[in-house]
Specification:
about 120 residues, S16 Ribosomal Protein, Chain: A, alpha+beta, 4 helices
Length: about 120
């Protein structure tokens, strides 16, 4: 299986975002992939990408090829990593966890003391 690291399009119409993925060369652009390695948002001004460089190096050591855009992103990420921690790109945004939503529900409900005093 020939593995390639390339961009997978996500986002809405006229608002494209991309994920950097490891995939089989024969799969379509937005088709099946092996692993998500990062993201790229071309509309952001600064800090518009994030890559897992250790996983990229793993795939390259296994013989994976890089697309031209991913090759450019990897070189930029290596420069940022060499510059120091203050210039590293932002991490991938995470979804709200269930523990956060339960805290909000607890705040909305009146406490037992308030109910008992009424």
């Amino acid at each position: 299986m020939a593995v390639i690291l390339r961009l997978r399009r996500t986002g809405a119409k006229n608002d494209a975002c991309f994920r950097v993925v490891a995939t089989d060369r024969r799969c379509p652009r937005d088709g099946r992939f092996i692993e998500i390695l990062g993201w790229y948002d071309p509309k952001r001004e600064s800090n518009n990408f994030n890559l897992k460089l250790d996983r990229v190096e793993h795939w390259v050591s296994k013989g994976a090829c890089l697309s031209n855009t991913v090759k450019s992103l990897v070189s930029k990420a290596k420069k940022l990593a060499a510059a120091g921690p203050e210039l590293k790109p932002l991490p991938v945004p995470t979804a709200v966890t269930s523990s956060d939503s339960t805290d909000a529900e607890e705040q909305e409900q009146p406490s037992e003391e308030t109910v008992a005093s009424e």
